[in-house]
UniProtKB/TrEMBL annotation:
Annotated source species: Pseudoalteromonas caenipelagi
Domain GFO/IDH/MocA-like oxidoreductase: 147-277
Keywords: Signal
Protein name: Gfo/Idh/MocA family oxidoreductase
Keyword ATP-binding found: no
Entry's Gene Ontology molecular function annotations: nucleotide binding
InterPro entries for the chain: Gfo/Idh/MocA-like_OxRdtase_N, Gfo/Idh/MocA_oxidoreduct, GFO_IDH_MocA-like_dom, NAD(P)-bd_dom_sf
Domain Gfo/Idh/MocA-like oxidoreductase N-terminal: 6-136
Pfam families membership: GFO_IDH_MocA (PF01408), GFO_IDH_MocA_C3 (PF22725)
Domain of life: Bacteria
Amino acid sequence: MSKAKIRMAMVGGGEGAFIGAIHRIAARLDGMIELVAGAFSSDANKCKATGELLGLDSSRCYDSYQSLFSAEAKLPTDERIDFVAIVTPNHLHFPVAKMALEHGIHVLSDKPATLTLAEAKQLQAIIAKQQVLYGLTHTYTGYPMIKEAKHRVKASELGTIRKVIVEYTQGWLSHSEDEGSKQASWRLDTSKSGISCCMGDIGVHAANLAEYVAGLEITELCADLNHVVDGRSLDDDGTVLLRFNNGCKGVLLASQIAIGDENNLRLRIYGDKASLEWSQLEPNSLWLRGHNQPSILLRAGVGELHPDTQNALRAPAGHPEGYLEAFANIYRNFAAQIHAFKQGDHVTNSSFDVPGINEAMRGMAFIEHVVASSKQDIKWQKLQVG
């Protein structure tokens, strides 16, 4: 017997919003989720127009997220939305998630989860009280070969981790004239983006990926953030030294002024037995290198790979799988988590491989401590989450 589709609403993602379309593609890729409602824009006409383009019932295209949750909560349980995808600028992530959770509606939010760590802690308390699900779209954990890398580390193929280097460099904000787009303008606005642009936008992704694959937690950091383009009040570049809970050290490099770089996310992890390397520019490849041994190139869909890797694959070997599929893996896992929740099962984010409130809080702690460290003469900051 087939399962009923999980019903989704979206807040944000209207006309001109790049990430909203990405979320919608990812949500429908596996046929498990149906978009049935939304508050796509604060402009009621734009919201209705977006809904019409998506083929939605006009009565479920709302002029605000407040009216969306109030109306949907009154519908019968077999009609109301199961979860909401939040794809707004950062400053709205917290109030939208808070109201949804308080109405018993599950949440899948873009990162960073909130503007502050204090807000993330509030969400944690609401989640525990309301007994609802919360997911965070740290997209890059959805790549099949990232899952393979994680399990190779967990199986001790690298031995004891000694060094972690993660880089996320882009060039799309290299000049002041690049600030005219909608995507750029809000990211450089402190009232909408928060206390950081570069680290809050892509540095937090790099930190999450390093922790996810290495199976370690950042415990201390030392940061040097830059405002390279004149007139900017938020960072557009930065370097962070890292200390992890097993004693090893690492480096995180994030930049949005690296001319010529498109979306250059690269991870290297070095153990005392071997090392691995992965790049988003060639996501189907994972390099495994031993000491004084030939390098091994692991390819998606080829040979014996971990079951989690196989489950994340969608095409035969040689067919590139990328950003959209990685995004879809998170949506599919979250839908499976909701199905299990409906059956009364005790579910955790880790059991369904969905980034959750723990990652949300660690991400906000990372951003706040990086900014604080960069401002101080005494650079090292203990990463305190709780």
